[in-house]
TrEMBL record:
Species the sequence originates in: Lynx pardinus
Gene3D superfamilies: Rhodopsin 7-helix transmembrane proteins
PANTHER family xref list: OLFACTORY RECEPTOR
Keyword flag Cell membrane: yes
Transmembrane segments: 32-57, 69-93, 105-126, 147-170, 203-229, 250-267, 279-298
Domain (G-protein coupled receptors family 1 profile): residue spans on this chain: 47-296
GO CC aspect terms: plasma membrane
Keywords of the record: Cell membrane, G-protein coupled receptor, Membrane, Olfaction, Receptor, Sensory transduction, Transducer, Transmembrane, Transmembrane helix
Topology with respect to the bilayer: Multi-pass membrane protein
Cited function: Putative odorant or sperm cell receptor.
Pfam families named in the record: 7tm_4
Protein name: Olfactory receptor
Family: Belongs to the G-protein coupled receptor 1 family.
């Protein structure tokens, strides 16, 4: 796959490194931003580690729903780690540069994890669909083997599709000043630095986004339409509330993730500006991963009960 022939114009030289200028206009606030983003990063990693550890030690949480939640928590930790630590370093440095190879590595990582999350959220929606619409067949349809297949398919889709796409992007020549109007190597800002016409690349990327972002989104919507119909047929209000409560956390996470993903990758090129790109990127790289542990702990009764049981068994607390 190739977009345009890598012909050079004039005496432009190829870039060997890129320079970020996202926060150049906020020089006085960079120490404050460093502290804020560091706290968010530590909170996100710590929160997801707690969720993974809690599910690991609590046998009551050894169910398909929480198997997928472990995958999601691990993914979120890797996702925010692919962007924020480097951003923190750059906030303390006057020159914010990255090599082309380092930029490619960062883009590979967050793109693979982002697409994997699309597929993983669809698998989680299917799990809730089976649990509510076919409760008597749940253990059969969501067997450990099926859960492993769905999780493996999610990760494989992310790795295969995004590896091909990012390899294609970095086969293009980059020239000029190498200045990126962003705080990390996002796809759109980097493609703007290509020395060749990237219109074909953008069209293919838009089509891939429509297929691999919208297809899981449609599967999620179809699953929740069936879930909604089933819940409305439950005669008791308590039963409807109990059924809906098992889905509420996932619905919030899906809304946050797809809201920013659709705004970023499905919108036309003419709508993209450096300001909107940076604002939405902060949402899906920093804010959304930080909110997920809060959503799955504060809004999930089973997780809160498991946390209480674990803390009550703590020997140090018993001695107090």
């Amino acid at each position: 796959m190739s977009g345009s022939e890598p012909t050079m114009s004039g005496n432009q030289s190829l870039c060997t490194k890129f320079t970020f200028v996202a926060f150049s206009s906020l020089a006085e606030l960079q120490p404050v931003l460093f502290v804020v983003f560091l706290l968010i990063y530590l909170f996100t990693v710590g929160g997801n580690l707690i969720i993974i550890s809690l599910i690991w030690v609590s046998t009551s949480l050894h169910t398909p729903m929480y198997f997928f939640l472990v995958n999601l928590s691990f993914l979120e930790m890797c996702y925010i780690t692919s962007v924020v630590p480097q951003m923190l370093v750059h906030l303390l440095m006057e020159t914010k540069t990255i090599s082309v190879g380092g930029c490619a590595a960062q883009m590979y990582t967050f793109a693979i994890l982002g697409l994997t999350e699309c597929s993983l959220l669809a698998a989680m929606a299917y799990d809730r669909f089976v649990a509510i619409c076919y409760p008597l067949r749940y253990t059969l349809l969501m067997s450990p083997r099926m859960c492993l297949i769905l999780a493996t398919a999610s990760w494989t889709t992310g790795v295969v599709v995004e590896s091909a796409q990012i390899t294609w992007i970095f086969s293009l020549p980059f020239c000029g000043t190498g200045t990126i109007q962003h705080f990390f190597c996002d796809i759109m800002p980097v493609m703007k630095l290509a020395c060749v016409d990237t219109s074909h690349n953008r069209i293919v990327m838009f089509v891939l986004s429509m297929i691999f972002i919208m297809t899981p989104c449609l599967l999620i919507l179809c699953s929740y339409l069936r879930i909604l119909v089933t819940i409305l047929r439950i005669p008791s209000a308590a039963g409807r509330h109990r059924a809906f409560s098992t889905c509420s956390s996932h619905i919030l996470v899906v809304s946050l993730f797809y809201g920013t993903a659709l705004f970023t990758y499905i919108q036309p090129k003419t709508v993209h500006t450096p300001e909107t790109d940076k604002a939405t990127a902060l949402m899906y790289t920093v804010v959304t991963p930080a909110l997920n542990p809060v959503i799955y702990t504060l809004r999930n009764k089973e997780v809160k009960e498991a946390f209480q049981r674990v803390t009550q068994r703590n020997p140090l607390r018993q001695m107090a």
